[in-house]
From TrEMBL:
<dbReference type="InterPro" id="IPR012669">
    <property type="entry name" value="Pectate_lyase"/>
</dbReference>
<keyword id="KW-0063">Aspartyl esterase</keyword>
<feature type="active site">
    <location>
        <position position="534"/>
    </location>
</feature>
<comment type="pathway">
    <text>Glycan metabolism; pectin degradation; 2-dehydro-3-deoxy-D-gluconate from pectin: step 1/5.</text>
</comment>
<dbReference type="GO" id="GO:0030570">
    <property type="term" value="F:pectate lyase activity"/>
</dbReference>
<dbReference type="InterPro" id="IPR012334">
    <property type="entry name" value="Pectin_lyas_fold"/>
</dbReference>
<dbReference type="Pfam" id="PF09492">
    <property type="entry name" value="Pec_lyase"/>
</dbReference>
<protein>
    <recommendedName>
        <fullName>Pectinesterase</fullName>
        <ecNumber>3.1.1.11</ecNumber>
    </recommendedName>
</protein>
<comment type="similarity">
    <text>Belongs to the pectinesterase family.</text>
</comment>
<dbReference type="Pfam" id="PF01095">
    <property type="entry name" value="Pectinesterase"/>
</dbReference>
<dbReference type="InterPro" id="IPR033131">
    <property type="entry name" value="Pectinesterase_Asp_AS"/>
</dbReference>
<dbReference type="InterPro" id="IPR011050">
    <property type="entry name" value="Pectin_lyase_fold/virulence"/>
</dbReference>
<feature type="domain" description="Pectinesterase catalytic">
    <location>
        <begin position="380"/>
        <end position="664"/>
    </location>
</feature>
<keyword id="KW-0378">Hydrolase</keyword>
<dbReference type="InterPro" id="IPR000070">
    <property type="entry name" value="Pectinesterase_cat"/>
</dbReference>
<keyword id="KW-0456">Lyase</keyword>
<keyword id="KW-0732">Signal</keyword>
Length: 680
C-alpha cells in the first residue's frame, strides 16, 4: 500500500472511530455525561465544547439551571434565541433532580481540559446561586427564588440538599475535586454555609418518642417537622434520603459530638427498620417497568421502605389520592410501577459504619467517653468533654451527686459545648454549677413546642436546663436553646427557691427564661438574657440585678404571672435594655396572668422601647389588678409622660422599699436570710 493510501485509510479510521465514540456520548443521558471521568479525553473534543455552549445558554443570570433538560441535545437557532430571552428569568431555577449541581460538575470537568474563563465564570455564578438560596436556618428549598407550595420546604428529596453540601465540602476542604478554585472569600462563605447546613440536618433529625431516628424527605422550613410534598409523598421517615444524609455526616473530619450522636442514632434506626425475607420483582418491557411485585424470599438481601410512619416505622404506600395503604399491591399500576417504594441505599451506611467508628477511636483527637461512677470527692466534681474530669456529661454528674446533701456540691464544668438537656431534680439541692468561662462553657439544646408535641403544655418540657431543686447556683455559663424562631423554646427553667444565677448568658427566642414557683425567690446577677416574645416569664419573685436584657425582635420583654397577693414579682435593678437593629417596637411587658407585677428601677432603656411601655394583652381586668412601674430610669426608651395611664412612676419613698433584703430576704429562716449574697 502506497503512502497516499495509508493516509486515506488512517483518516477514514480516525473519522469513523471518532464518530462512533462521539455518537455514544450523544446517545447517553445528560446525567451520565456529567458523571464521566474527568480525565476522559472526550472533554477535549469539539463535541464537549458544543455541549458546554448549551450549558451556558441554559444557565439563567441568577446562576441556576432548570431541571429535566437533556442539555446535550442540538439546539436550533430559534431555540438558542429563546434561551437568550429567558436569561433574565428566574422561573424554574432549582437543585431538584440534579439540576445546577450536574451542570457545575460538567463545567469543572471541561474547564480542566479547555480552561476558558467563561466556564469558570458560569461555575462561580452557580456556586453563588447555591449560597444565596440557603435559608438562614441552614436548609435549602427545592426552588430558588421561592416557588409557592411545598417547594419552600427544606428538601432532602432525591438527595438535593446532600448534593449541595457535597459541593460546598469539596470547595471548603480544597480537595481539588473541582478544577475551578474560588477565592478565599468564597471558600470561607462555603465553609459557613456547610456548617449551617449540617446544623440544619442535626435539628431536623426526627425524635420518635424522645429517641433520635432519621429524616423525612422534606421538613417545614420554620418548625423543622416532617411535612408532605406531592399527594403521595406524605410526612414520614425516609429509608432512602436518610441514607445519603448519614453518609455525608460520616464524611466529616473530626465530627462533633452532635454529629456522632446523629450517626449512631440513625444506624440504630436503620438496623431496627430493615426488611428481610422480601424481594422486589420487576417485569420490564421495552425498557419500561410494567409490573412490580413483592415476593417472599428467605435469601433476599435487606431492603428499606421509602416511607415509614413517624410513630411506629410501619411502611406505607400511597396513590395520587394521598390515602395511605400498607401493601404495595393495594395501589394502582401507575404509582406502583412508576415510583421507587423500596431502597437498598442504607446498606452502604451499615457497611461503612464499623470502619467509621474504629477510625474515631484511633484518631488522636478523639477520646472515648470516660465516666467515673464514684468521683474522688462527691462534693467537688469536674465535668470535661475531653475525659479529663470525673464525667463528660453534666447530667451524669448530677445523677451521681448526693441527694439532699448536708453541704454544697460544686460541679465545675470545663470549656466546651455540651449538647444535652440537663435536669436538676428536687432531691439534688445545694448544687453549684460553675463554668470555666461564660463564653466558652456552653450548654445547648434545641427542643421546642412543636417538636415536643405533647399537648398544650409542651412549652414546659422544652428547657435546655430545668432547675427543680432549691438552693441552686449557676455561674460562668452560656445556657441556650438553639431551636430558632419556631415558637416556645425555653433555655432555662427555674422552678425552685433561693436560686442564684450570676455572670451567665441565657439565650433563646420565644420564652427563653421561665422563672416560677409560688412564693419562690430567685436572683439573676450580671447576666445577659436575650429572646423574642415574652422571653422572661413566670410567677416567681425574681430580681434581675445589673443584667443586659436584649430583645431580638419586636415583642415583649416580660410576661409575668405573679400570684395574687405576692408583694413583688419581677424587679429589674440597674439593668440595660438593648436590642437588635430590626427590633424597634418592644414593650416592657404584658400580663400572662392578671396580677402580674413588674418594676424597672435605675435602668437604661434603648430607643426600641415603645413609648407606651406596657400592654394589657387584651385583658381589661389586668389594668386594675396588675402592677407595672418604673423609677429613675434613663435613655431614649424611658418616656414616663407617654406611658399607659394604668402604669406607675414610683416616688422616691416607694422606690426605697425595693431592696434585695426586702424582696429576697427569708424572714422565716435565719440561716437562709442572705442566700442571695452568695454566688457560689
Amino acid at each position: 500500500m502506497n503512502t497516499y493510501c495509508k493516509v486515506i485509510v488512517l483518516l477514514l479510521f480516525s473519522f469513523t472511530t471518532g464518530f462512533r465514540v462521539h455518537a455514544q456520548v450523544l446517545d447517553k443521558s445528560w446525567n451520565s455525561i456529567t458523571e464521566m471521568d474527568s480525565d476522559d479525553q472526550w472533554f477535549t473534543s469539539a463535541e464537549a465544547k458544543a455541549f458546554a455552549e448549551n450549558v451556558l445558554l441554559y444557565q439563567r443570570n441568577i446562576g441556576g439551571w432548570p431541571k429535566n433538560i437533556q442539555i446535550q441535545k442540538t439546539l436550533s437557532d430559534a431555540q438558542k434565541k429563546e434561551l437568550l430571552v429567558l436569561k433574565n428569568s428566574t422561573e424554574g431555577c432549582t437543585t431538584d433532580n440534579n439540576a445546577t449541581s450536574q451542570e457545575m460538575l460538567f463545567l469543572s470537568k471541561i474547564y480542566k481540559h479547555q480552561p476558558d474563563e467563561k466556564y469558570k465564570k458560569a461555575f462561580l455564578s452557580g456556586l453563588d446561586y447555591l449560597l444565596k438560596a440557603q435559608y438562614d436556618n441552614g436548609g435549602w428549598p427545592q426552588f430558588y427564588p421561592l416557588k409557592k407550595g411545598y417547594y419552600t420546604h427544606i428538601t432532602y428529596n432525591d438527595d438535593s440538599m446532600v448534593r449541595i453540601l457535597d459541593i460546598l465540602k469539596e470547595i471548603k476542604d480544597k480537595t481539588g475535586f473541582y478544577s475551578i478554585q474560588p477565592s478565599e472569600e468564597i471558600v470561607e462563605k462555603c465553609k459557613i454555609a456547610f456548617d449551617k447546613g449540617i446544623d440544619c440536618i442535626l435539628k431536623t433529625q426526627y425524635k420518635q418518642n424522645g429517641v433520635l431516628t432519621a429524616w423525612c424527605a422534606q421538613h417545614d422550613e420554620n418548625t423543622f417537622l416532617p411535612v408532605k410534598a406531592r399527594a403521595y409523598e406524605l410526612p414520614s421517615l425516609s429509608g432512602k434520603e436518610s441514607a445519603q444524609i448519614v453518609l455525608l455526616l460520616m464524611s466529616i473530619e473530626n465530627p462533633s459530638k452532635e454529629v456522632i450522636t446523629a450517626v449512631d442514632a440513625a444506624v440504630t434506626w436503620f438496623e431496627k427498620v430493615k426488611i428481610t425475607g422480601l424481594r422486589e420483582d420487576r417485569i420490564i418491557k421495552n425498557g419500561k417497568i410494567v409490573e412490580k411485585k413483592m415476593i417472599p424470599d428467605a435469601n433476599a438481601l435487606p431492603i428499606w421502605a421509602r416511607f415509614m410512619e413517624l410513630d411506629d416505622n410501619k411502611p406505607f404506600f400511597s396513590d395520587r389520592d394521598g390515602v395511605k395503604k400498607y401493601s404495595l399491591a393495594e395501589i394502582g399500576d401507575e404509582r406502583r410501577n412508576g415510583y421507587a417504594w423500596y431502597t437498598n441505599e442504607p446498606k452502604e451506611v451499615l457497611k461503612k459504619y464499623d470502619k467509621w467508628k474504629k477510625k474515631l477511636l484511633t484518631e488522636s483527637n478523639f477520646i472515648p467517653k470516660k465516666v467515673t461512677k464514684s468521683p474522688k470527692d462527691e462534693y467537688n466534681i469536674v465535668v470535661a468533654l475531653d475525659g479529663s474530669g470525673d464525667y463528660t456529661s453534666i447530667q451524669d454528674a448530677i445523677y451521681n451527686s448526693p441527694a439532699f446533701p448536708y453541704k454544697r456540691v460544686f460541679i465545675t464544668v470545663k470549656n466546651g459545648t455540651y449538647h444535652e438537656k440537663v435536669r436538676i431534680p428536687e432531691w439534688n439541692t445545694k448544687i453549684s454549677l460553675i463554668g470555666e468561662s461564660k463564653e466558652k462553657t456552653i450548654i445547648s439544646y434545641d427542643d421546642y413546642f412543636g417538636k415536643i408535641n405533647l399537648g398544650r403544655n409542651s412549652t414546659f418540657l422544652t428547657p435546655t436546663i430545668s432547675v427543680e431543686a432549691n438552693d441552686f447556683r449557676a455561674s460562668n455559663l452560656t445556657i441556650q436553646n438553639t431551636a430558632g424562631p419556631v415558637g416556645q423554646a425555653v433555655a432555662l427553667s427555674v422552678v425552685a427557691n433561693r436560686v442564684v444565677v450570676s455572670n451567665c448568658i441565657i439565650s433563646g427566642n420565644q420564652d427563653t427564661l421561665y422563672t416560677s414557683g409560688e412564693g419562690f425567690k430567685q436572683y439573676f446577677k450580671d447576666c445577659f438574657i436575650e429572646g423574642t416574645v415574652d422571653f422572661i416569664f413566670g410567677n416567681a419573685t425574681a430580681v434581675f440585678d445589673n443584667c443586659t436584657i436584649h430583645a431580638k425582635s419586636d415583642s415583649y420583654l416580660t410576661a409575668a404571672s405573679t400570684t395574687e397577693g405576692a408583694k413583688y414579682g419581677f424587679v429589674f435593678m440597674n439593668c440595660k435594655l438593648t436590642a437588635d437593629e430590626k427590633a424597634t417596637e418592644v414593650y416592657l411587658g404584658r400580663p400572662w396572668r392578671i396580677h402580674a407585677k413588674t418594676v424597672f428601677l435605675n435602668c437604661e432603656m434603648g430607643n426600641h422601647i415603645r413609648k407606651e411601655g406596657w400592654n394589657n394583652w387584651l385583658k381589661a381586668d389586668a389594668e386594675k389588678t396588675s402592677f407595672y412601674a418604673e423609677y429613675n430610669c434613663s435613655g431614649p426608651g424611658f418616656q414616663p409622660q407617654n406611658r399607659v395611664a394604668w402604669s406607675h412612676q414610683l416616688k422616691k419613698s416607694e422606690a426605697k422599699k425595693y431592696t434585695l433584703e426586702n424582696i429576697l430576704g427569708d424572714a422565716n429562716s435565719k440561716p437562709n436570710s442572705n442566700w442571695y449574697s452568695n454566688f457560689k
